[in-house]
Design a protein that fits this description.
transferase; binds thiamine diphosphate; Rossmann fold; five-stranded parallel beta sheet; binds 1-deoxy-D-xylulose-5-phosphate; binds magnesium ion
């Protein structure tokens, strides 16, 4: 018999709702076991999903989904929700080419009411849905499920500020508090939540909460006010009350006997409601409970043995090259500080935090703040290095322009995950940074061809007295060992890597290795352009004067990226060869492995040769 016999009978939330409440615990056990087995085969976000098993069941059991809207913040905790909404079998293709996404997507299911992956959008989106329901006179709920990490972002508070003051909306915010972001959460809010969770408060609040919720309004309203008054004296629970929300909790988010009746009662209430649930990352899988950071995002692994091995003996990743460089640089330059918006592990800052705790700043999931905070430090003579993923830098665009570039402040953006990231897919590809950075005055933008060049560019950036960006891809490059010594590169100068004839391939960053293969195949000239800004106009002019075709290669949107800069330069020249711009197409790119994705957009050797051949055959 299948170990998932009960789960297999649930094809949609309607099947779940047909069950007796006492049967839900079995479903939860099977769902948890299924997720461990399934994610161990596909990879994905494990810890967070194990923490939301009961919450997913309780929400779909109590609310009339998809009529009632659930918006999952970040969406990395929605695997249980996917299974319960008809995607159990599709889980075998999770995050793989052609398979389902690791995040909610409106095009994937009617139960995925809002696409997420970048954090802290859920309250705004659910509030918008609640306002729409109110304005149309529709009686349905909008529920935002947001983690304690995601709650730290300004956007979440903007939405609370707006929602707590909105009349007649049917909005429930569920704070899924597991006392973890990817790494331990930071900031004053974390302390407030910890006080809310502390022993006596927890019990008292829970008992009072149950009592209140058992009553019908308006009695409940009166009791709530009494409760708030009492809690206000002993806990900071009224923070959310002050925003205009009715606060309930904290309750145990793994206890279906607490969750289900609480949600049933809250469902009857009108106005902005706030439920605080306590869960544990990795719940029910001892290895993940013990090390939720390691199991936050996993590759395939043996679920019995757990993730094996420490550091791989293979090539260094660009992230490691950056992390090592930052420590080395900090040792020689006291002005260096490292800043991360909640991505210590992913950005390679673990060692830096250990060695330089006083110069390390995790500012929470707060990209906008991270950049302006860096700007402030730069004003005081520091050399702030903001380690940030390309996709999350999108959040902080105005801060980059207005607070850093306009004031010409020496902030270094170490932009990781530039280009296609793989399994996280469209929400996480660093597809746009060269386009949105190239137009910013004062900014020097570099993209390394290999790991050593990455180290040298980071050093070059710190030597430059103005804003800089070094953009590198997820994973490793050619395997070049970085030199210990650091030498500043001449700003705005590329280099010719191969001399050929007729065709000149101008490659940026991660595309240099494949450009060299193409060069060998066609006897083409290959330039490693190094700088997107300032572009090496002299090199472009020289190559334009001596070749009949210029091919630009970049792992960035072809619209407005490095190739567009080359075209702009060629347009000013007296002799203008044809320019073929190759990069990411003008559409969002799904998930899959990086090599597969590059091939799918024609950025592997075969694809590039084909595009060039089309020029010569006149088919382009
Ligand atoms: C804007 C943005 N910045 C950073 C991230 C990377 N990120 C994904 S999950 C996560 C931690 C979220 O913590 P929490 O909301 O508490 O959820 P948990 O992982 O604890 O379930 C972070 C920082 C992101 N998805 N979006
Ligand atoms: C959900 C999220 O945003 C992160 O967990 C992200 O998936 C991490 O990506 P990396 O695996 O590239 O660090
Ligand atoms: Mg959390």
């Amino acid at each position: 018999m299948s170990p998932y016999s009960n789960l297999e009978r649930i094809h949609s939330p309607a099947d779940l709702r047909a069950l007796d409440r006492r049967e839900l615990a079995v479903v939860a056990d099977e769902l948890r076991a299924f997720l461990i087995e399934s994610v161990s085969k596909t990879g994905g976000h494990l810890s967070s999903n194990l923490g939301t098993v009961e919450l997913s069941i309780a929400l779909h059991y109590v609310f009339n989904t998809p009529e009632d809207r659930i918006v999952w913040d970040v969406g990395h905790q929605t695997y249980g929700h996917k299974v319960l909404t008809g995607r159990r079998e599709a889980m075998s293709g999770l995050r793989h080419w052609g398979g389902i996404s690791g995040f909610p997507r409106r095009c994937e299911s009617e139960y995925d009411t809002f696409g997420t992956a970048h954090s802290s959008t859920s309250i705004s989106a659910a509030l918008g849905m609640a306002a729409a329901a109110r304005d149309r006179g529709e009686d349905r709920s909008a529920i935002a499920v947001i983690g304690d990490g995601a709650m730290s972002a300004g956007m979440a508070f903007e939405a609370l500020n707006n929602g707590g003051d909105m009349e007649g909306i049917n909005l429930l915010v569920i704070l899924n508090d597991n006392e973890m972001s990817i790494s331990p959460p930071v900031g004053a809010l974390t302390k407030i939540l910890a006080r809310l969770m502390s022993g006596s408060t927890y019990n008292t609040a829970r008992k009072v909460g149950e009592k209140v919720l058992g009553m019908a309004p308006p009695v409940a309203e009166l009791a709530r006010k009494v409760e708030e008054h009492v809690k206000g004296m002993i806990t900071p629970g009224t923070l959310f009350e002050e925003f205009g929300f009715h606060y309930y909790g904290p309750i145990d988010g793994h206890d279906l006997d607490a969750l289900v009746p609480t949600l049933q009662n809250i469902k009857k209430l009108k106005g902005p409601q706030f439920l605080h649930v306590i869960t544990r990352k990795g719940h029910g899988y001892k290895l993940a409970e013990a090390d939720p950071i390691l199991y936050h995002g996993v590759s395939k692994f043996d679920s019995a043995a757990g993730i094996q091995g420490g550091k791989s003996a293979g090539k260094l990743t660009y992230t490691q090259v950056f992390g090592d460089w930052l420590c080395d640089m900090a040792a020689t330059d006291k002005r260096i500080v490292g800043i991360t918006p909640a991505m210590r592990e992913g950005s390679g800052l673990v060692r830096f935090e250990q060695e330089y705790p006083d110069r390390y700043y995790d500012v929470g999931i707060a990209e906008q703040h991270a950049l302006t905070f860096a700007a402030g430090m730069a004003c005081e003579g520091y050399r702030p290095v903001v380690a940030i993923y390309s996709t999350f830098l999108q959040r902080a665009y105005d801060q980059l322009i207005h607070d850093i570039a306009l004031q010409n402040l020496p902030v270094l953006l170490a932009i990781d995950r530039g280009g296609l990231v793989g399994a996280d897919g469209a929400t996480h590809h660093g597809a746009f940074d060269l386009s949105y950075l190239a137009c910013v005055p004062n900014l020097v933008i570099m993209a390394p061809a290999d790991e050593n060049e990455c180290r040298q560019m980071l050093y070059t950036a710190v030597c430059h007295d103005g804003p800089t960006a070094v953009r590198y891809p997820r994973g490793s490059g050619t395997g070049v060992e970085p030199d210990k010594t650091m030498t500043a590169l001449p700003i705005g100068k590329g280099e010719i890597r191969r001399r050929g004839s007729k065709i000149a391939v101008l490659a940026f960053g991660s595309m240099v290795p494949v450009a060299l293969e193409v060069g060998d195949a066609l006897d083409a000239t290959v330039a490693n352009m190094r700088f997107i800004k300032p572009l090496d106009d002299a090199l472009v002019a020289e190559l334009a004067a001596t070749h009949e075709l210029i091919v630009t290669l970049e792992e960035n949107a072809v619209v407005g990226g490095a190739g567009a800069e080359v075209s702009r330069c060629v347009d000013t020249l007296p002799s203008r060869p044809r320019v073929l711009r190759l990069g990411l197409p003008d559409r969002f790119i799904d998930h899959g492995d990086q090599a597969q994705l590059l091939a799918s957009v024609g950025l592997d050797k075969a694809g590039i040769l084909e595009s060039i051949a089309r020029i010569y055959s006149g088919n382009s």
